[in-house]
Amino acid sequence: MPAHPEFVAAFEAALRGGPLPAGVLAQDAAEAARRFAVYRNNGAVSLSEALGSRFPVIRQLVGASFFAALARAYLETSRPRSPVLAEWGASFAAFLEHFPPLAAYPYLGDVARIEYARGRAFHAADAPPVDPRALAGADPDRVRLGLHPSVHLLDCAYPAVSIWMRNQPGAQPAPLESGPQTALILRDPAFQVPVRALGPGDAALLHALMAGATLTRAADMAQQRQAGHEPQPLLVSLMQSGAITEARE
Amino acid sequence: MPTACLPDLPGVGFKPDHFAAIRADAAGIGFFEVHAENYMGAGGLPHAQLAALRADHPLSIHGVGLSIGGPGRLDADHLARLRRLCARYQPESFSEHLAWSSHGAEFLNDLLPLPYTEETLRLVCDHVDQVQEALGLRMALENPATYLCFSQSTIPETAFLAEVSARTGCGLLLDVNNVFVSCTNHRTDARAWLADFPLDRVTEIHLGGHETEHLPSGPLLIDSHGRAVADPVWALFAEVIAKAGPRPTLVEWDNDLPAWPVLAAEAARAGQVLAAGRGAGLARAS
Fold first, then answer.
1. What SUPFAM superfamilies does this protein map onto (chain B) (predicted)?
2. B108 and A2: CB-CB below 8 Å?
3. Does residue B143 register a pLDDT over 90?
């Protein structure tokens, strides 16, 4: 009879707070508990720190000690499913939105989505920028743009970009926006991952481009959303960030 | 099976915060080691830095998530990630731990202990075979820092590791701090542990710092990698090198990171011990 699966199952149950596994050698029960506590602590603390490093603004907003409790609660239902911790935390935003003690802070979910997207952008695949001449010579009625794998566009119900910015190191206090914001997240050529809020026209333009619309069609959609919208500034900014990787007709 | 080799010099665990300082001055550093799981994203800064380091230095890839001491089969997805990483960077060494870190599909992010029995010996050997076959290289297995012993164990840790190495051909990564931590915690003699350990199978050495707690029965040392290497660990390391000859030796410092010169000075101290051991030593088992 293999004994190891049962041993590991009992050890893991004890990590969650169950009785210590059979066979632990120690001077007495109190010492066994102290020794086992090293393992309980190592796993919980290291995962809480890993979560905090993925969601530093959430940690700052709720405070370090509340965040540690939050991480323990999240771990009960959502331990990492792989040793690649950079992939962990996809469900953290939804968890925050449904965590009863945080019901008065409904914007935290959007802030967490921005932080998760920044992590994805940081690790996204590399892709060289398009040759600017290819874009300059393209027919706007036919050309469709490929965007860098790090580009994320998030429609937030709350002014989460402003909240995120106010909680960056060295940020100046600024009056908070109200209402929804669309967040643009991308990794620039210096590997920085800035976050910016897009106005309604820019957001419509980029949504359309990411959905595969031609430049003309995307500009039309931006016009419908925001009369008089000019697509040029956002396109130039995306070019400068290396975010346009393809222009195909 | 191709056997690349790290140089018998001091190495340092690479931290992105040190990248610029390392590019300015890596004098005396014989190799860098990275945790495999930190380089499993598709692209971006981690790979840009690792590619630059790898171009100029020997590289050790050290896994912390394969759960070699766990029951059942190894995680095929994770093994595939490791294969891609090793194929991309062609490290001189790949190593993992005698420990388990996953339960079912869940990753626990710690190196957890196992009883040493005929059953777990077969299991660990099967897993090491599987890793070496999948990666196409000879891996090294590291002795753990432990806080508990189990009545189920029937094989001493040293004999267990020696037998895994003999059966699978894997190298052994000797973590001298882990020896000191475990032996102190279990009220046994680190020198006796080292006397029983097959030093001729050692392909790499780790040195790191630990924290001290106190139990009624004596100290409980915690393997924290958050401070300088302790003096008793330096003394054991010097004895190992005098006996075995110089080996690639990594200084690990993962938490409460110091400035680069502090870490480089720890590596230089290891380098002095290695230099003093040149000419001494054992033939290496292949």
1. Xylose isomerase-like
2. no
3. yes
